[in-house]
Structures are given as C-alpha cells and as structure tokens.
Design goal:
Number of domains: 1
Number of strands: 0
Strand content: under 5%
Largest sheet: none
CATH class: Mainly Alpha
Mean pLDDT: 89
Protein name: NUDIX hydrolase
Shape: rod-shaped
Low-confidence stretches: 158-162
Number of helices: 5
C-alpha cells in the first residue's frame, strides 16, 4: 500500500514538473516571438526610410505616402501596407537610382527577409507547443491567442506585384 502512495506522489510530482517546464518553455517562446517581431518591425522601418530616400529622387511618386502608411499601420494591417509598398517600389525604374540607394535597399530588403523568417520560425515553434492537446487542456499558455505568421512579398520584381 505504501509503495502505491509513493508511486502516486512521484507521478503527481512528475506531472507538475512537466507542466511547469512546459509553461516556462511556452513563456520563453512567446518572449522570442516578441523580440523577433520587434526586429522585423525595425527592419521594415529601415526599409521605409530607404524608400523615402528613393522617393525623393522621383518627383510625384506615391512611395512616401505608402512608406508612411506602412510604418503607421496597425499590426493586423501591416502586411497589406508592406505589400502595397513593395508593389509600388517594383513599379519604379530601378536604373535611375543612385548606386548608394541600390545598395541600401538591397541590404534593407535582405534584413527584412531574414527577420521575417526568424519571426515566422519563432511563431511556428510557439504554435507547435501551444497546440498540443495537454497544453491546451491545462491552459499552460493562459488565455492568449497564438501568434500569427507575417507573410509579405519579398523583393518584388517589376510586373510581379501588379
């Protein structure tokens, strides 16, 4: 009888330990998502600055307004605003840009691409853990909704974004 009690206590302690570890891991993954989102938004903001510099070379361009809209967009509308900016940028003539701006834009777009991939990897890992049956049943993730992926057009070539 005593061995059954000891085994029961050990089983409960193991279950509590697993739940604590899983909840802590989920919390760390959510922090990783938040940091990756900040990095992604910083990259997008940097790209908007470069686009404004390109727009200064193109009188009458809509790029400045689109860059402003993308930077100020609410998180749920940011993807659409960034896609509109990418499409408008693809419609401009790249041959007339200064070499420094071409390099800056390529660097900014590369950083955005990498930041988006890191962010989406963090979202994937977080969702994979949060969607496990026991994690959901025990509400180890609290009541927070799972993070969403960030999907934008990368390096739009002329004619592709239209």
């Amino acid at each position: 009888m005593a061995t059954w009690i000891v085994l029961g206590i050990v089983a409960v302690l193991l279950a509590v330990g697993w739940a604590y570890h899983t909840a802590n891991r989920l919390d760390r993954l959510n922090v990783r998502v938040d940091l990756a989102r900040q990095s992604l938004y910083a990259g997008l903001d940097r790209r908007a600055v470069v686009v404004r510099a390109i727009a200064a070379e193109l009188p009458g361009s809509e790029l400045t307004a689109l860059a402003d809209r993308a930077e100020r967009a609410a998180p749920e509308a940011r993807e659409d605003a960034e896609n509109a900016l990418s499409s408008a940028l693809a419609r401009t003539d790249a041959s007339g840009r200064s070499p420094a701006l071409v390099i800056e834009l390529a660097d900014a777009e590369t950083r955005v691409m990498m930041a988006r991939r890191f962010y989406n990897d963090a979202v994937r890992d977080t969702r994979a853990l949060a969607e496990r049956r026991l994690v959901r049943w025990l509400r180890l993730g609290g009541h927070a909704s799972p993070p969403t992926y960030f999907e934008i057009i990368e390096r739009v070539t002329p004619g592709q974004g239209e």
